[in-house]
Design the sequence.
């Protein structure tokens, strides 16, 4: 992995492309340095990944070039066409959407949802609903009902925690 | 259920076999190419545990194959039976294989994705094969958290598999479409409908033995059922066209067709050396001849089995040693001669 061109110490995980008056400059930076001097938008399109041309406009764009969990870089993806881990899809979510639109024609999953995921999701929604109800009970000083709801929330949360 | 290559399935005059495959990844580990060997071994262990569980009877139905320590020739036999991919066979990583004893279900571990759950069946059995994959997936999901995203669905190493991560494919025997040249238009149309068609056994699009593999390209944005159903609809149309053309060819050029088929049969019955190309071509003619009612002492399962057993890995296993290519041609011819002779005897 390249070293940050600003502090020359830390590993560079951000790749900055600037095109000013038609002149393109590329720069590798660590997150800290990038955060100080430049506005970083992690979701900016990754030009290499998508093969998009930027044209001659004056744009300064930065893209994260590595996944912070597995270390996969954009350059690696461009070479292999493969992601490094499930978290890469979070890191490169927006460019991935564009890529998927192109190769799959769709960006939204319509099929099977794992049972555990669906159950966890349902529990999450229920907890949210109960918390709203709890606040309302406290407001109207219905403490008996509030205690019931609190217990139910704990139960749901512990069940979720139990699986992980 | 019998092994796909010795079973008779629905619509087997055109559809040789069905395969459905699901890709799954553990949430907690990076994808296989970025896993340490230790992590790869953990994945194998956890998968075996999750699948076999406490149900002793279910457990007896599966074997964990020591794929890692197997020599290359033997690995090739699994590729030829379509139980594993070429990539898994060639891998030097900690790869694993769980196989049901009837060779219908196979789970490849640490190929491009952590798991590839696959079901094979004879003839056209898309629904059945996908139900079985779904069942195995549910079973594993009880113990394993699979990488899943609300928007993107099941996450896979390659974005071309994301979403349902399902790949359904049919092996089709299309001699009439091939001989008449209509196959090219067909290939083009399938591409437009989001299906890919490629030759089987041969490289790239060149098909050997008039065998083609039809499979879905799109995995995201459609449900598993939609993917399978639209594929089934298209496959039936292809099947009908093939049947129509076969009938037409037999009506118009009956004598020439019969001559071609019976010559091929004669060569298979008596030849002393056979290249892989020629054998596949002759077997394809014989398969056509069986369904045209011209050859009665063999059936499609004989052809399926011969097409499989004459591939390099299986032949060397049959011979019990590595073979030079000229030796291979002789062993191939002798294997086919014996197979046909056995069947002939039954009818004497």
Sequence:
């Amino acid at each position: 992995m390249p070293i940050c061109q600003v502090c020359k110490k830390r590993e560079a995980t951000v790749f900055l492309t600037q095109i000013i008056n038609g002149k393109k400059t590329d720069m590798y930076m660590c997150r800290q340095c990038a955060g100080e001097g430049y506005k970083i938008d992690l979701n900016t399109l990754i030009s290499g990944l998508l093969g998009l041309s930027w044209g001659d406009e004056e744009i300064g764009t930065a893209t994260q070039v590595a996944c912070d969990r597995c270390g996969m870089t954009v350059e690696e993806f461009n070479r292999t066409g493969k992601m490094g881990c499930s978290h890469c899809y979070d890191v490169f979510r927006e460019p991935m959407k564009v890529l998927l639109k192109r190769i799959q024609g769709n960006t939204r999953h319509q099929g099977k949802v794992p049972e555990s995921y669906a159950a966890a999701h349902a529990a999450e929604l229920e907890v949210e609903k109960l918390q709203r109800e709890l606040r309302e009970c406290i407001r109207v000083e219905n403490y008996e009902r509030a205690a019931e709801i609190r217990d139910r929330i704990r139960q749901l949360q512990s069940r979720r925690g139990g699986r992980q | 259920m019998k092994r796909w290559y010795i079973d008779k399935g629905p619509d087997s005059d055109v559809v040789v076999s069905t395969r459905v495959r699901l890709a799954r990844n553990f949430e907690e580990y990076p994808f296989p190419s970025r896993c340490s060997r230790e992590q790869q071994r953990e994945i194998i262990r956890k998968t075996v545990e999750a699948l076999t569980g406490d149900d002793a009877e279910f457990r007896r139905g599966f074997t964990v194959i020591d794929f890692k320590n197997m020599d290359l020739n033997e690995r090739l036999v699994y590729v030829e039976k379509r139980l594993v991919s070429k990539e898994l066979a060639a891998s030097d990583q900690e790869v694993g294989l769980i196989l049901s004893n009837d060779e219908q279900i196979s789970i490849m571990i640490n190929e491009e994705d952590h798991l590839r759950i696959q079901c094979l069946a004879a003839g056209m059995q898309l629904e059945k094969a996908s139900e079985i994959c779904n069942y195995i997936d549910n079973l594993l999901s009880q113990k394993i958290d699979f990488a899943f995203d609300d928007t993107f669905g099941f996450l896979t190493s390659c974005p071309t598999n994301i979403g349902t991560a399902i790949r359904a494919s049919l092996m089709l025997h299309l001699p009439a479409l091939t001989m008449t040249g209509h196959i090219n238009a067909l290939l083009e149309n399938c591409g437009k409908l989001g299906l890919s068609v490629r030759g089987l056994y041969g490289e790239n699009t060149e098909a050997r033995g008039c065998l083609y593999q039809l499979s879905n390209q799109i995995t995201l944005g459609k449900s598993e059922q939609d993917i399978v159903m639209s594929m089934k609809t298209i496959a039936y149309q292809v099947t009908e066209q093939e049947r129509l053309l076969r009938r037409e060819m037999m009506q118009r050029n009956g004598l020439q067709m019969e001559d071609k088929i019976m010559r091929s049969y004669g060569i298979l019955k008596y030849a002393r050396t056979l290249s892989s190309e020629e054998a596949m071509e002759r077997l394809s003619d014989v398969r056509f001849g069986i369904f045209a009612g011209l050859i009665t002492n063999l059936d499609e399962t004989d052809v399926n089995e011969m097409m499989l057993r004459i591939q390099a890995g299986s032949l060397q296993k049959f011979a019990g040693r590595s073979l030079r290519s000229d030796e291979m041609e002789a062993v191939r011819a002798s294997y086919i001669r014996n197979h046909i002779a056995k069947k002939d005897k039954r009818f004497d």
Remarks:
- Chain B has two domains: 4-243, 253-347.
- The CA atoms of residues 26 and 148 of chain B lie 9 Å apart.
- Residues 224-252 of chain B form the longest helix (29 residues).
- Chain B has a mean pLDDT of 91.
